[in-house]
Amino acid sequence: xxxxxxxxxxxxxxxxxxxxxxxxxxxxxxxxxxxxxxxxxxxxxxxxxxxxxxxxxxxxxxxxxxxxxxxxxxxxxxxxxxxxxxxxxxxxxxxxxxxxxxxxxxxxxxxxxxxxxxxxxxxxxxxxxxxxxxxxxxxxxxxxxxxxxxxxxxxxxxxxxxxxxxxxxxxxxxxxxxxxxxxxxxxxxxxxxxxxxxxxxxxxxxxxxxxxxxxxxxxxxxxxxxxxxxxxxxxxxxxxxxxxxxxxxxxxxxxxxxxxxxxxxxxxxxxxxxxxxxxxxxxxxxxxxxxxxx
Length: 294
Hints:
Elements: H1 2-21, H2 30-33, H3 44-75, H4 91-119, E1 128-135, E2 138-143, E3 154-157, E4 165-169, E5 173-180, E6 185-189, E7 194-198, E8 209-213, E9 218-224, E10 236-242, H5 244-255, H6 260-266, H7 282-293
Helix pairs in contact: 1-3, 1-4, 3-4, 5-6
């Protein structure tokens, strides 16, 4: 029984560290990201650290289990025909491997909720607000605080032949208000390390809203991450992160009547998407075949 107690205490001390590891600050380099992108927003670091801590915890549990399996194979291998001593139960060990998984799950759950609450925090007065409208099978981006030459807010709408470009400023708090015209879609920019399902009929300012501050300029692909129908895979868009001055100039150009392409060219940016290209849909193929046959 003493041997079982020592083994139980050793297992408890070795694996209990898993619970606390997810709360430690993790180094930010390619190795410790375990395949995740680096992230370009102010909230990416929190999610990356949760991912790193979870992977390390899983590896510790895995190595501990593999070690115990190996130990059992070596120490309890057959040594003869004599039946070894049979143990009906080991109460301390059973208590450890009953309670310890609960503690691990509780620890991971706790840190997940903490990070989720931090990521979903909203400011009282964001610097910018963007309305994102998802529909089968593309995106519309509306800048509600603007007014074009027709008096309506400036917007960009994608089509089967054009990737919609969402222009965002860096170093400003941006609130995204998401809505769906039909089914559940999901707004996902991999470099944000974040995605949010867009649930139809849920435009209540609570569940379909999030905020980020983009910290790096560049062009980043965006996708729909929820299977939403036949052409789900074609719902790509691009985030074009520019400086605050270029963003203001872009909106000013749009308000003067320029379209997305012209306004981007006006601020020295490529007028078309560079991170992704339109897919040739079956509808376009059928039209082309019909035109060729005619």
